[in-house]
Design a protein that fits this description.
Helix content: 40-55%
Mean pLDDT: 78
Distance between the termini: 114 Å
Strand order of the largest sheet: 8-7-9-10
Number of strands: 10
Number of helices: 19
Order of helices and strands: HHHHHEEHHHHHHHEEHHHEEHHEEEHEH
Structural class: alpha+beta
Low-confidence stretches: 1-91
């Protein structure tokens, strides 16, 4: 194979119509003196066919380059394909436009001097009268002046002592107008963060719904205790409750309150098969008050901050245990000495008492404390409303509740005289309380009285912190029935 004929045979056989033209373009004339340079530039005349080196040695390489533009079949060069006659579409154009534009010349390449940069115009300071500058002092103190006005005022303050004193007074007044922000973290921050995290990524072993109030309230109280010093741990706290319709109190300390919570939570721990925090300490009675008094007596010294760790570990163990057992443990019974509660109600009871005593602690150290979340508060109110009929019956047996007019016996599950308990605000709702028998069913058709209270105030009444006679309740209907229910709610409290 030699020259153009070799390219033609190759193109016809393999079907590469544009290959011969790419090796030699018809738009650029090749002079004989340039063939050697082109051959060297292509690597000894290799044009991609594998035989161009032999052709160059035999003197046929130049012919291939000379005839490449006119003799290649259907070829095209940098300007595009050529027609079958061998002519280029731009053959009539003496100055064809290159496909890739040349780079534009920079101003530095022209040899001309660079244009001078514009000098920034200096700001002209404001010249204001003394009365105008004095009138701007209030805006300057509030950082409401423009940059020029601020510069003029501050220059004037350096030469006018009267305006400088006035500016200092106004700046101090602005500081008083700003509401100081507390550096203390919100006690409910940890609870909100945990709830937000659990909503996005549920735990592998979820906490039962009826145990979440206890988990939340113990976490909030633990956050309150975190930064307490020795003075706070020994701050005096007065526990208050009602006993036989009489207000009763017991003086202790913040550490003593945590010891009280731990000893009563031990009743739930024993029911779940966990260790009793009382250890070998005997109690006069297996009641919350009996266990607390025995724990206090057994302590050689008043409880200190060291009581926080066992209380915290016990609360974690309770939540962890009920989570592992799932919903099957909710029907276990927890004995309080003189009454029994199912485990799911006992956990609500412990959450309620944890919140109440956390408020006692916060009040003792002069620290704000928020109520539980509305859904948890609603469950606590519901527990109290469900227990009220049994408490009413017990009070009647003891002669603490006067028999109401029109009282009559009803069959179990039948409707009887009813009081409507309306709770407003947080945790609000309505409950129908049967008055004649704990086995009766509340009925709107048999409603004889209506009581309305705020949710937090009702809980304070049930905790023994608000006397029944002073409860701000909207009352309608049978006054005796209303009095019995309010005093029964107060008698739910205990140490």
């Amino acid at each position: 194979m030699s020259g153009a004929g070799g390219f033609e045979a190759h193109d016809e056989q393999d079907g590469y119509e544009g290959r011969g033209a790419r090796e030699g373009s018809g738009d650029h004339e090749v002079f004989p003196e340039d063939t050697e340079k082109m051959s060297d530039g292509l690597g000894n005349g290799d044009d991609g066919t594998g035989n161009a080196g032999d052709d160059h040695e035999s003197g046929k390489g130049a012919d291939a380059h000379d005839t490449g533009g006119a003799g290649s079949a259907g070829g095209g060069g940098p300007e595009g394909p050529v027609d079958p006659a061998g002519s280029s579409p731009h053959a009539t154009d003496p100055h064809p436009t290159p496909r890739i534009p040349l780079p534009r010349a920079s101003v530095e390449d022209t040899g001309r001097p660079l244009p001078a940069l514009e000098e920034p115009v200096p700001a002209v300071p404001l010249v204001l009268e003394h009365r105008v500058l004095k009138a701007l002092l209030g805006a300057w103190a509030l950082a409401a002046c423009s940059a020029e006005e601020t510069a003029a005022v501050e220059d004037h303050l350096g030469v006018c002592g009267a305006c400088a004193d006035e500016a200092l007074r106004l700046r101090g007044a602005v500081g008083l107008l700003q509401r100081p922000e507390s550096l203390d973290l919100d006690p409910g921050l940890r609870t909100r963060v945990l709830e937000g995290c659990l909503d996005r990524r549920p735990p592998r072993i979820p906490v039962p719904e009826w145990a979440t109030p206890y988990d939340a309230e113990t976490a909030r109280l633990d956050a309150l205790l975190q930064d307490f010093g020795d003075a706070e741990w020994h701050a005096p706290v007065r526990l208050r409750w009602f006993d036989a319709d009489e207000a009763t109190s017991r003086r202790t300390t913040v550490a003593g309150v945590i010891a009280h919570l731990m000893s009563v939570d031990g009743l739930v721990a024993v029911a779940l098969g966990l260790d009793d925090p009382m250890g070998e300490v005997p109690a006069d009675a297996p009641t919350p008050a009996g266990r607390t008094e025995a724990y206090w007596r057994a302590s050689h010294f008043p409880p200190t901050r060291s009581v926080r760790t066992p209380w915290r570990e016990q609360s974690h163990d309770l939540v962890r245990t009920v989570s592992f057992t799932g919903g099957t443990s909710g029907k276990l019974e927890v004995a309080y000495g003189d009454f029994v509660l199912p485990l799911h109600d006992a956990m609500l009871d412990r959450a309620f008492e944890c919140w109440v005593h956390a408020e006692d602690i916060a009040e003792a150290v002069d620290y704000p404390y928020e109520p539980p979340s509305p859904r948890h508060l609603n469950r606590m109110i519901d527990l109290a409303a469900r227990v009220l009929p049994a408490v009413l019956a017990e009070r009647r047996q003891k002669g603490l509740a006067s028999p109401a007019h029109g009282r009559h016996l009803v069959s179990a599950g039948g409707p009887g005289r009813t009081l409507r308990l309306e709770i407003e605000g947080l945790g609000g709702g309505e409950w129908l309380i049967p008055l004649d028998s704990p086995a009766a069913v509340g009925s709107a058709e048999h409603e004889v009285a209506h009581v309305a209270l705020d949710g937090v105030e009702f809980c304070q009444l049930a905790a023994g912190h608000v006397p029944p006679a002073e409860a701000a309740a909207g009352q309608l209907g049978d006054r005796e029935a209303i009095r019995d229910v309010l005093f029964a709610a107060a008698s739910l409290s205990r140490m």
